[in-house]
Amino acid sequence: MKTTDTPQHPHGGIYNYFQGATINNLVINGNMNKNGTDNVNAHENTAQQDNIRPEQIAQAINLCKDMIWGNAAYSVAYCVCRDVYALGTNATAFERMLREQGFQLPEGTINTSMSRNVYMRMNIDRWEENGAMQRVLKLRDALREKMADVTIDETGIA
User: Does residue 132 lie in a domain region?
Assistant: First the structure.
């Protein structure tokens, strides 16, 4: 006597539902690229492993202050530090660090700027192709250059 029942599989009903197909990567509410990272938040591995000190960041920002159009411009500095110098702090900690360096910056400024400008969640090298304004690109390039030029010794003196 033959049976038409499907054989029991250790994976249960889901195995039978997909007729034996396997799922290697499951993504819910997001896109995955081949590296397994979210495309919107992908930060290419271009970061320098140098540690950048708060004094260097502050000095570079001060050297570019004629390009700072408002508080939202500080989010450009955060993104440069995030992508070029692998700064491991989040936006809130970065704002706190700037306030400790003497900058007047309301809480939530960087996160608000990043939520309004989706390109800021991307690596800074992808901003141009994703609609960043010219003033943002100019500040990005200037900050990148100034941070590379500014050196601070262990005592915090340039």
Answer: yes
Instruction: Please list the residues that pair with 38 across neighbouring strands.
Output: 32
Whether residue 66 has pLDDT greater than 90: yes
Positive/negative CA dihedral, 85, 86, 88, 93: positive
Burial pattern 25-63, b for ≥16 Cβ within 10 A else e, equals eeeeeeeeeeeeeeeeebbeeeeeeeebbbbbbbbbbeb
Whether 20 maps to a domain, the answer reads no
The answer as to whether 8 is a domain residue is: no
Q: What is the extent of the structural domain holding 68?
A: 54-149
| Rg of the Cα atoms in the chain | 23
Report the number of distinct structural domains present in the chain: 1
Contact (Cβ atoms closer than 8 angstroms) between residue 92 and residue 99 = no
Considering the domain boundaries, does residue 24 fall inside one?
no
Q: What confidence tens digit (pLDDT) does each residue in 122-149 have?
A: 999 999 999 999 999 999 999 999 998 8
